[in-house]
C-alpha cells in the first residue's frame, strides 16, 4: 500500500511537471528555441504570486492570474526585443539569450528578496485530503494541480488544432517562410506563442510554489531540469506525451523517495537517462507540432 | 585531337594550383610571443610575492576552462551546460589518486586521463540529444555524477573533504600550485592550437560551419565531436584538479559540481569570441578583471554578466577578439588557410 501511495503521489506531482514542460515544448516546437531560462521563469511566477499575496493582499486564488499576466507580458517583451533578433542570427544566439536571462532572474530575485524562502500559503487546502483506503490519501491541492495540468494541455490542444490562430501557429512551426508569403507576420505568431508559453510556465510555477509552501531564488536550476526531462521522456512535440512524461518523472521521484529520502532526484534523473538510452524518441515519439 | 582533350577538362578546374598559406609571419611571431609570455609567467614565483601568483592561478584555470568550452561549442557545435561534471570529477579523482600515494601535481595528469576515459561512455548518452536539449542533457548528467559522488563517505559525502598529502611549506606549495595551473593552461591553449591545425581541426571547422555539409563531404562528424567531447572532459578535469589543489580540497560537492562554472565558461567564450583560439583568453581576462574589481558589489555584478552575455551575443556575435580578427584578418594563433592567388586557365 505504501508503494501504491508513492505511485499515486508521484502522479499528482507529475501534473505540475507536465504543465511546466508544456510551455517549453510549445516554444521549442514553434520557434526551435530551447529555453534555458524556463525553470527560472517558473520561479519568477512563484515570486510574483507571493508578492501579490503578501504585499498587495490579493486573494491567493487570484495570484495565479496576476502571475500569469505578469510573466506572460514579460514573455511578449523578451520575444519582441531579444529573441526575434537572436533567431535571425544563428541557432546559438537564442540559446545564449535564454542563458543570460537564466543568470539574471535568480540574481535579481536574491537582490530584491534575499535567499530566504518567499512564502505562499494556501491555508487548510494544503493539508486537506480525501481518504481512499487505509494507507492511501489523495490531497485536494495536488488533485487540483493535476486537473489544471490536464485542462492546460487540453486547452493547448484545442487551441492548436481547432482554431484559426492555432492553425497559423502550426503552419509557422512547419515553415515560417511560406507563412510569410501567405501574408502572416511570423513575429506576431512567435509573440503569441511566447505569451501563451510564459503564462503557462507562470501557472506551473505558482502552483509549484503553493505546493511547496514557498520558493527560493535558485530553485529554477532544479525545475528547468525537470521540465526538459519531461519533454524528452514524453517525446518532443507531443502534448499528451508531455503529460505522460510528467507522470513518469513524478512517479520515479516519489518511488525513489520511498526507497530512501536522499534518492528522489537521482531516481528521476536515472529514469530519464535510461529512457534516453533505450527509447531516445521518448514514450510518444510522434512529432505533433513540427 | 588536342581540342577534344581540352574539352574534357572541367572548365572550373584551374591548371595552376592556387597558392595556399597559413599564418606565415603572424604565426611565427604569435607563437614566439606566446612562448615568451609563458616563460616570463613561469619565472614569476622567483620575482613576485605569493599574492600575485595566487591571483594568476585563477586566471590560468579560467583560461583553460574557457578554451575547453570553446572547443566544444565553437568548433564542434556542442553547447554543453554540464562541464561541471568533469570539473568535479577532476577534483574528486584527485582525492582518489592522492590517497593511492601519487602526489597531486603528477596526479593531475592521471586525473585528466581517467576522467577522459569516463567521458568516453558518457558521450554515447549525451550524443542522443542535440542543440538546447544536449545542453540540458549534459547538465542532468552532471547532477547524476554529483548525486553519486556524495554517496561515497570516503569522499566526504555531502560535506567535501581535504587533500591528504600536499607540500607542507606554504611558499613552495604556492609556487608548485602556480606552475601546475600554468602548465594546465599552456597545455589547453597549445593543445587546442595544434589540434585545430591538424586534419581533425579542418574537420572540426567544417562541422562548426555546417554539420550536414561537412558530413556529406566525408567528414566523420560524430567521431570528430566525440574526440572533442572526451578531450574537453580531460581538460576540464585538469582544471578541476587545479581548483582542488589551490583550495587544498573541496569545500562542498555542490560548489565544485555547480552549474556556475559552466555559466562562467559560456560568458568568457561569448565575450571573447566563440570559435577563435584567442577569444577565450580575452574573455577570461575580461572576466578576471571584472571579478577582481566588481565581485564585492554583490549579486548585481552577476546580473550585469548575464546582461552582457545577451548584449554581446545579439550585437557583437563574434565577440571582442572575433570582431577584431574579422576586421583586420589578424591572428596570433592562425588556424585558417588563406588563398593567396589563383590563376585561371584562360589567363595562364
Automatic annotation (TrEMBL), chain A:
It is a multi-pass membrane protein. Keywords: Amino-acid transport, Cell membrane, Membrane, Transmembrane, Transmembrane helix, Transport. One of its GO terms (biological process) is amino acid transport. GO terms for molecular function: transmembrane transporter activity. It is found in: Cell membrane. Coiled coil: none annotated. GO terms for cellular component: plasma membrane. The chain crosses the membrane at residues 12-34, 54-77, 89-110, 137-160, 189-210, 222-251, 263-280. It holds the Pfam family BPD_transp_2. The keyword Heme does not apply. InterPro entries: ABC_transp_permease, BCAA_transport_permease. Belongs to the binding-protein-dependent transport system permease family. LivHM subfamily. This is Branched-chain amino acid ABC transporter permease. It comes from Streptomyces flaveus.
From TrEMBL, chain B:
GO terms for molecular function: branched-chain amino acid transmembrane transporter activity. GO terms for cellular component: plasma membrane. The keyword Transport does not apply. Keywords: Cell membrane, Membrane, Transmembrane, Transmembrane helix. Its main location: membrane. The chain crosses the membrane at residues 24-47, 59-82, 102-120, 132-152, 176-196, 227-251, 263-290, 299-316. This is Branched-chain amino acid ABC transporter permease.
Amino acid at each position: 500500500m505504501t508503494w501504491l501511495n508513492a505511485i499515486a503521489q508521484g502522479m499528482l506531482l507529475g501534473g505540475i511537471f507536465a504543465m511546466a514542460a508544456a510551455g517549453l515544448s510549445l516554444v521549442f516546437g514553434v520557434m526551435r528555441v530551447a529555453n534555458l531560462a524556463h525553470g527560472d521563469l517558473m520561479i519568477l511566477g512563484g515570486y510574483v504570486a507571493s508578492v501579490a499575496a503578501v504585499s498587495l493582499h490579493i486573494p491567493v486564488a487570484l495570484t495565479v492570474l496576476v502571475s500569469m499576466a505578469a510573466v506572460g507580458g514579460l514573455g511578449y517583451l523578451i520575444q519582441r526585443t531579444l529573441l526575434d533578433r537572436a533567431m535571425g542570427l544563428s541557432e546559438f544566439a537564442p540559446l545564449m539569450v535564454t542563458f543570460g536571462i537564466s543568470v539574471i532572474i535568480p540574481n535579481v530575485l536574491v537582490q530584491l528578496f534575499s535567499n530566504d524562502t518567499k512564502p505562499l500559503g494556501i491555508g487548510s487546502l494544503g493539508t486537506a485530503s480525501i481518504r481512499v483506503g487505509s494507507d492511501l490519501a489523495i490531497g485536494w491541492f495536488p488533485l487540483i494541480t493535476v486537473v489544471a495540468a490536464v485542462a492546460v494541455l487540453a486547452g493547448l490542444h484545442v487551441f492548436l488544432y481547432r482554431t484559426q490562430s492555432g492553425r497559423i501557429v502550426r503552419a509557422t512551426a512547419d515553415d515560417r517562410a511560406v507563412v510569410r508569403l501567405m501574408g502572416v507576420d511570423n513575429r506576431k505568431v512567435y509573440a503569441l506563442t511566447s505569451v501563451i508559453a510564459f503564462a503557462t510556465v507562470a501557472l506551473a510555477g505558482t502552483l509549484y510554489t503553493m505546493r511547496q509552501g514557498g520558493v527560493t531564488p535558485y530553485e529554477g536550476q532544479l525545475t528547468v531540469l525537470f521540465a526538459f526531462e519531461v519533454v524528452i521522456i514524453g517525446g518532443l512535440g507531443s502534448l499528451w506525451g508531455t503529460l505522460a512524461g510528467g507522470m513518469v518523472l513524478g512517479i520515479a521521484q516519489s518511488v525513489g523517495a520511498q526507497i530512501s529520502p536522499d534518492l528522489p532526484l537521482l531516481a528521476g534523473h536515472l529514469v530519464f537517462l535510461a529512457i534516453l538510452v533505450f527509447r531516445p524518441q521518448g514514450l510518444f515519439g510522434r512529432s505533433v507540432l513540427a | 585531337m588536342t581540342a577534344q582533350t581540352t574539352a574534357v577538362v572541367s572548365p572550373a578546374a584551374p591548371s595552376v594550383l592556387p597558392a595556399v598559406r597559413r599564418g606565415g609571419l603572424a604565426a611565427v611571431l604569435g607563437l614566439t610571443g606566446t612562448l615568451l609570455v609563458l616563460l616570463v609567467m613561469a619565472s614569476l614565483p622567483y620575482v613576485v610575492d605569493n599574492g600575485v601568483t595566487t591571483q594568476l592561478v585563477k586566471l590560468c584555470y579560467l583560461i583553460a576552462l574557457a578554451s575547453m568550452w570553446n572547443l566544444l561549442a565553437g568548433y564542434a557545435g556542442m553547447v554543453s551546460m554540464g562541464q561541471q561534471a568533469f570539473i568535479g570529477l577532476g577534483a574528486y579523482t584527485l582525492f582518489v589518486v592522492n590517497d593511492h600515494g601519487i602526489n597531486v601535481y603528477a596526479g593531475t595528469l592521471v586525473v585528466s586521463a581517467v576522467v577522459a576515459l569516463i567521458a568516453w561512455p558518457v558521450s554515447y548518452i549525451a550524443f542522443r540529444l542535440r542543440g538546447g536539449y544536449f545542453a540540458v542533457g549534459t547538465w542532468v548528467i552532471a547532477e547524476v555524477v554529483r548525486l553519486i559522488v556524495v554517496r561515497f563517505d570516503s569522499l566526504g559525502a555531502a560535506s567535501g573533504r581535504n587533500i591528504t598529502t600536499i607540500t607542507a611549506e606554504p611558499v613552495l606549495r604556492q609556487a608548485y600550485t602556480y606552475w601546475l595551473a600554468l602548465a594546465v593552461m599552456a597545455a589547453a591553449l597549445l593543445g587546442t592550437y595544434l589540434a585545430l591545425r591538424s586534419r581533425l581541426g579542418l574537420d572540426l571547422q567544417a562541422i562548426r560551419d555546417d554539420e550536414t555539409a561537412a558530413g556529406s563531404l566525408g567528414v566523420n562528424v560524430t567521431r570528430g565531436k566525440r574526440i572533442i567531447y572526451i578531450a574537453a572532459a580531460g581538460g576540464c578535469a585538469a582544471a578541476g584538479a587545479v581548483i582542488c589543489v589551490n583550495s587544498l580540497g573541496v569545500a562542498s560537492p555542490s560548489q565544485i559540481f555547480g552549474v556556475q562554472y559552466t555559466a562562467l565558461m559560456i560568458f568568457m567564450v561569448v565575450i571573447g569570441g566563440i570559435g577563435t583560439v584567442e577569444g577565450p583568453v580575452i574573455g577570461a581576462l575580461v572576466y578576471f578583471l571584472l571579478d577582481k574589481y566588481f565581485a564585492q558589489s554583490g549579486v548585481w555584478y552577476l546580473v550585469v554578466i548575464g546582461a552582457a552575455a545577451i548584449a554581446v551575443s545579439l550585437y557583437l556575435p563574434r565577440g571582442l577578439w572575433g570582431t577584431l580578427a574579422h576586421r583586420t584578418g589578424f591572428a596570433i594563433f592562425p588556424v585558417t588557410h588563406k588563398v593567396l592567388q589563383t590563376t585561371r586557365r584562360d589567363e595562364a
